[in-house]
Design goal:
Blueprint: H1 4-31, E1 47-54, H2 59-73, E2 77-85, E3 98-101, H3 110-120, E4 125-128, H4 131-139, H5 141-146, H6 163-172, E5 180-182, H7 186-196, E6 200-204, E7 214-216, H8 219-231, E8 240-244, E9 250-258, E10 261-272, E11 289-293, H9 296-309, E12 315-323, E13 329-335, H10 342-352, H11 360-370, E14 387-392, E15 396-401, E16 407-409
Parallel strand pairs: 1-2, 1-4, 2-3
Antiparallel strand pairs: 5-8, 6-7, 6-8, 9-10, 9-12, 10-11, 11-14, 12-13, 14-15, 15-16
């Protein structure tokens, strides 16, 4: 019987033999032009930074921070995060190193507060997540740059633009939009139905989440809706517009750009909204169920919409699209901001596939700080088709794959 030393000796040489056999196979495959699969979450994607994220108490800001913490646990980042929010309760939720309540974005002290925090905590990079805060920070970007704080934001004119401004930009550049009429008085409503027919969709000219949106079948319904909102102090007559009602599928297109160059993008279809049964419009801003898709026309129209809004895109841009009764795709919104679930999609899929190159928040942060990526990512269709993101109040987040029924619990 061989002694323990002989066994260890033989085991050692077996391992050496296996190692060289593997090396020979790799050399042979590379000679044949076949590359070995490698983990894309490797050291070239790793980043170390001190950052400030605003609006961390909202769903979008929370998702952004959570995605970065996922990247940390995967070894792709080492971050010190200062998180801010106006809401005294919601700011308690995100996983940040330091949390600080700030004034509202419209308060004159908002920017000075951020600058003070940046100096106190030696911040290298600021990411204002809500579009209202991103717009103000973008307008004041020079003050941050003078303090050595980097930003990765579109020009302020491309952040939270009014709906009529969006429609004009898209129309002028040949991007398909629903026929639209601006409302200033009751007569405009009558004229809109006369020219466009019915039903129509009424909505606010500014704001997100389907603000003041409603399907209206007659001029009387539209006028009553406006009068109710004016009477209750939510809006004025000139805050509304009417456009052709689009009854088809509901799509979103998200894209990341750097100095006019498209870095990556993906598209999805919204299938359900949370608490839609208590909303008159059935639209509550962000979906509870959505599905990744690969759709060339949505990619084409989405890119055209971003370029129409901003000829030299820089940062993250979101596009909302709807299918009309004619089966064509129309753009209803384009904005230099993040959709609420965009960082969550990146977090979920990077976890499911053990691939941090799919983590959009990490890609964005890496580009914003270093100005380059050490890895290749596809310009279109970053994510596989048929992945469902399922989320609602108090139930956590689930990723479901249509092809084989596999599920991952993300949170």
């Amino acid at each position: 019987m061989p002694c323990s030393a002989q066994i260890r000796h033989r085991s050692y040489w077996r391992r050496i033999g296996l190692y060289y056999t593997l090396v020979l196979w790799i050399d042979l495959w590379e000679d044949l032009g076949i590359s070995m699969p490698r983990s894309s979450s490797h050291v070239t994607m790793r980043i170390k930074a001190r950052i400030l994220v605003t609006g961390v108490g909202g769903s979008g800001g929370f998702n952004f921070v959570s995605a970065l913490r996922t990247a940390e646990r995967a070894g792709a980042a080492e971050l010190f995060i200062v998180g801010t929010d106006y809401n005294r309760y919601h700011i308690l939720a995100p996983d940040v190193n330091v949390r600080h309540r700030t004034p509202r974005h419209s308060d004159p002290e908002f920017i000075p507060t951020l600058l003070t925090l940046a100096k106190q905590h030696t911040i290298e990079f600021i990411h204002p997540h809500p579009s209202s805060e991103a717009k103000v920070v973008s307008e004041m970007r020079k003050r941050f740059e003078e303090e050595g704080v980097s930003l990765y934001l579109p020009d302020a004119s491309a952040i939270a633009p009014s709906k009529d401004y969006i429609i004009k930009r898209l129309n002028d550049n040949g991007v398909p939009v629903p026929s639209t009429k601006i409302v200033k008085e009751p007569e405009d409503v009558e004229n809109a139905f006369r020219e466009l027919g019915g039903p129509l969709w009424i909505r606010a000219r500014a704001g997100a989440g389907g603000r003041l949106g409603l399907k209206v079948n007659t001029p009387e319904e539209a006028i009553l809706w406006i009068r109710l909102n004016v009477l209750q102090g939510r809006a004025t007559w000139s805050d509304f517009l009417l456009h052709t009602y689009l009854p088809g599928r509901d799509f979103a297109f998200d894209s990341l750009w750097y100095r006019g160059k498209l870095i990556t993008s993906y598209a999805r279809e919204r299938l359900e909204y949370p608490l839609r049964h208590i909303s008159l419009s059935g639209i509550t801003g962000t979906p509870s169920v959505a599905r990744t898709i690969r759709h060339e026309e949505i990619n084409r129209v989405g890119i055209a919409a971003v370029l129409a809004l901003d000829p030299s895109p820089h940062g993250f841009y979101s596009v909302d699209l709807k299918e009309g009764a004619d089966g064509k795709i129309y753009v209803t919104e384009v904005d230099g901001k993040w959709h609420t679930t965009a960082p969550l999609w990146g977090e979920a899929i990077s976890l499911a596939y053990s691939d941090q190159t799919m983590n959009l928040a990490l890609l964005y942060l890496h580009l914003g700080i270093t100005g380059a990526l050490d890895i290749d990512v596809p310009k279109y269709d970053l994510y596989p088709e048929g992945l469902y993101l399922i989320r609602q109040l108090d139930t956590g987040v689930i990723l479901y794959r249509e092809s084989d029924g596999k599920t991952w619990r993300i949170r």
